[in-house]
Amino acid sequence: xxxxxxxxxxxxxxxxxxxxxxxxxxxxxxxxxxxxxxxxxxxxxxxxxxxxxxxxxxxxxxxxxxxxxxxxxxxxxxxxxxxxxxxxxxxxxxxxxxxxxxxxxxxxxxxxxxxxxxxxxxxxxxxxxxxxxxxxxxxxxxxxxxxxxxxxxx
Length: 154
Fold this sequence. Notes:
Blueprint: H1 3-20, E1 25-26, E2 38-46, E3 54-60, H2 62-73, H3 82-104, E4 108-110, E5 114-116, H4 120-128, E6 132-137, E7 140-148
Antiparallel strand pairs: 1-6, 2-3, 2-4, 2-5, 3-7, 6-7
C-alpha cells in the first residue's frame, strides 16, 4: 500500500478517536455513498513546481456528521444546526489534512475546507476509485478519497 494512503488512514483514525470519540474501521461500507451526503474537500498544493498537489475528498452521511458535532462540541442533538454540523466536518477535514502533512513531511500547503455538491455519477466514480478508502464509523459509512491533482492514482 502506498505510504501516503497509509499515513492518511493513520491521521483519520487518530483524529476521529481523539476529537470525536469515534473508532473507524476500514472495510466494506454497509451503504453506498450518495450525493445527499455531506461532502467536504481540501486542496493540498505543491510548494514547488516539482511537487504535485492532492485533493482530499470526504463524504459523511448526515447522521454521522451530526454524531461528530455532538461528540466534538458536547451539545445536545436538538441544539445542532446545519451550520454547526458543516463547521464541525470542515474542522475534521482540516485537522486530518494537517496531521497528514505533519507526519509525512510532504512539501505541500493546505487550502481551506470547502463544501462539495457532487452529482450521482461523480459519487459513483469516487466510490469505485482505486484510492478510495471506505470506512465504517459506528454503524455509518464514510468515504475518503486522496486524488493527485494530475488525475493519476496514488
